[in-house]
Amino acid sequence: MELLTPHLSSVRVPTATSKVYKDECVFSFDNPETETGLYVGLKSFFGLGRDYVEKHFHKTGEAVYLHIRRVRHEVSSPPQGDGPEKKITRLAIGVDGGFDPEAMSKKFEFEDSYNIVVLPGFSTIPWPNTELPQIVKSSIEGILEAPSASKVAEMEALTGTWDGEARVVSQFAHNLPQLDNGKKIPPSGWQCEKCDKTDNLWLNLTDGSILCGRRFYDGSGGNNHAIEHYNATGHPLAVKLGTITKEGKGDVFSYKEDDMVEDPNLVQHLAHWGINIANMEKTEKSMVELELELNQKSNEWSALQESDGQLKPIYGPGYTGMTNMGNSCYLNSVMQMVFSIPDFIQRYYHDAELFFNNVVGDPCEDFNAQMAKLAVGLHSGKYSVPPPAGSPVDADPPGICPLMFKALVGRGHPEFSTKKQQDAQEFFLHILTLLERNSKNKVNPGDCFKFKVEEKFQCSASKKVKYLTRSDVLLPLIIPMDAAINKDEVAAYETKKLEAEKTGKKLLANTIVRPKINFLSCLELFTQSEVINNFYSSAVNANVTARKTTRLATFPDYLCIQLKKFMLREDWVPIKLDVSIEMPDILDISSLRGTGPQSDEELLPEPKVQPPAPVMDEGVLAQLADMGFPPEACKRAVFFTHNSGLEAATAWIMEHITDSDFSDPFVPPGTESSHFTPNAEALASIVAMGFTQHQATKALKATDNNVERAMDWIFSHQDELDNVTSPPPPEFRDGDGRYKLVAFVSHMGTSTMVGHYVVHILKNGQWVIFNDNKVALSERPPKDLGYMYLYERL
């Protein structure tokens, strides 16, 4: 015990606010199940793997640790019939009700052992031990009883959010008006009051009407009579008949809140219509069951995961999987993709120790340290080794579980802090924003994606032109469905599908015929010029029409392309285009090169007077805002529809909701200045935060007048702002326009909020599939079904 005496003054007891990292090393992905276990400091409460505990000791002097070693034992599966098989009810992986990444038949129990370790000699004292000093016993007991820091961070992130399955209580549940119109609902024999539908029926809880639900994207479902009834009456809540259980549960939809909700008073609301839940049996599929069934009709899941083949696992540096932490496959796929790029490997893998040594404070709060930790986890090979001899043939490698990274990059974000499925493209942009914020004057590896976009406007009245440029990191392309090269086959398949539905037959998944579109058609649509109405021409001092053409002024080292597969249907239902795009392995975008002003072109003059502000219909703006659309998008809609009313503005929004500048500050076309003029409101907002007008203007110029991005820019360029003589930032990288396909992220499911993501990456001349923790050689990479594509310059 005398080993502990010199260190007793530094031992601490965790409090309610202490962060105890006992799940994972703060610098690596070692954990209690790692062969060398985990060392938790009795002063810092940092968890440290064997590779880092000595370094931490030499840097800080912390000498006393609780060593945790956990051994997993597989338990035999219980005999069949001991309980119901777990039913899949959610189109997700790694969350309750979803697909279990562990084999369903496998069950494990864990055996933990503890020792106190004193450095530098790694002297060991067993625990529990009654002879220990009280401060040491209290510290260890506190560590063992405290929730892990990762669990605390997860709970904090989920505060005020929902995880995609739990439904919020409807605002109408406690004061729902119910009419006394004499209606009583029979226990069976229901039919839609406006058509002959006898399934997918919804009972309006206010007036007792029974009407059919929405029509699904595949033609099944109802005839939209329930939503039409809401539009006519405003009665907000309806319950799906056939989903009501004896426990008082059922699928309740709020039309006003546009979501599935909880109705804690459902029993009373049903009793008003004479429904006794004691007699109710669930006979209809719930909404999540229907969604799952709709997706399983397609062979998309099988094709994208290559689940119909016997894929060969691959191990070693660069082939490490990532555990699905409950709908985190979007994060896993994006980070695997970016860390396949040499710029990221060089910055974070080769310089990892530099980042670790320069951490001030908690390493789990340091973005660069956590990026370096992720890089080492993926590329060291330490966590990607073949299973031991005698392991089950279907045993999956554990991979790494980036809990700390997810908690850090999602903190404070309304979407990425939750357990809901997210859009991989949005997360990709989020990571690039964080990179810019944390790079300061260092080289930002995200610059490999950055390119300059050139927009040319030609005034129809004067024929004079105007050139504007902006930066971007992603090339979003609209899919021209009318360019399908197999329209006859698709039409024949749709006819066959309708006939099958009438007869109750099911078509085999492998008989699905998707529209096939050549990728060049997507590029051609991008290069087509568009007519801009209400363009202010400084040549004639009036609003005219103009023709806008978009090109790329520079070609990045890595070109990331997003195919815009997600859209809103006419009835506002989000859908995903089920198409096959013929993506080239070698891509030449030389035809997209911008030319800049030509010698035979005359530029529009800078306006001598301030153009008049456009007149906006304030009533329509307010109505659009009430629907939840961003204020700047509402301005765009009203402007481009010439104040022609709510219906036209709403239609414009539905058509343009996926535009990259949808919610950016609105500047009427033609009034943009090539000699940058900061948006007045944006400038005032930043100056009000304590920054100078010069600093605010410089930040807004670098971020296209986007306040949020400008604030990030200020914090990541503080030295540049303080030094007025600092050199200008480096120009965009540029080069040849020939590229090769090196990775693609695929999504399976009907919308970005459900489903699953995987990524295929070209490594050493062979395609590899990264499906969360499963990493294997790809047999048939489904290049035609991707969502995001990464091309590398040749």
From TrEMBL:
InterPro entries, per the entry: Papain-like_cys_pep_sf, Peptidase_C19_UCH, Ub_carboxyl-term_hydrolase, UBA, UBA-like_sf, Ubiquitinyl_hydrolase, UBP13_Znf-UBP_var, USP
Active site residues per record: C329, H756
GO molecular function: cysteine-type deubiquitinase activity; zinc ion binding
Top-level class of the enzyme under EC nomenclature: hydrolase
CDD domains: Peptidase_C19B (cd02658), UBA1_UBP5_like (cd14294), UBA2_UBP5 (cd14386)
One Pfam family this sequence matches: UBA
UniProt keywords, alphabetically: Coiled coil, Hydrolase, Metal-binding, Protease, Repeat, Thiol protease, Ubl conjugation pathway, Zinc, Zinc-finger
Domain UBA: 615-656, 677-717
USP domain segment(s): 320-794
Coiled coil: 280-307
Residues the entry annotates as binding Zn(2+): C192, C195, C212, H225
Superkingdom classification of source: Eukaryota
Known catalytic reactions: Thiol-dependent hydrolysis of ester, thioester, amide, peptide and isopeptide bonds formed by the C-terminal Gly of ubiquitin (a 76-residue protein attached to proteins as an intracellular targeting signal)
GO CC annotation, single: nucleus
Domain (UBP-type) ranges: 168-277
Biological process, per Gene Ontology: protein deubiquitination; proteolysis; regulation of protein stability
EC numbers, comma separated: 3.4.19.12
Family stated for the protein in its record: Belongs to the peptidase C19 family.
Official protein name in the record: Ubiquitin carboxyl-terminal hydrolase
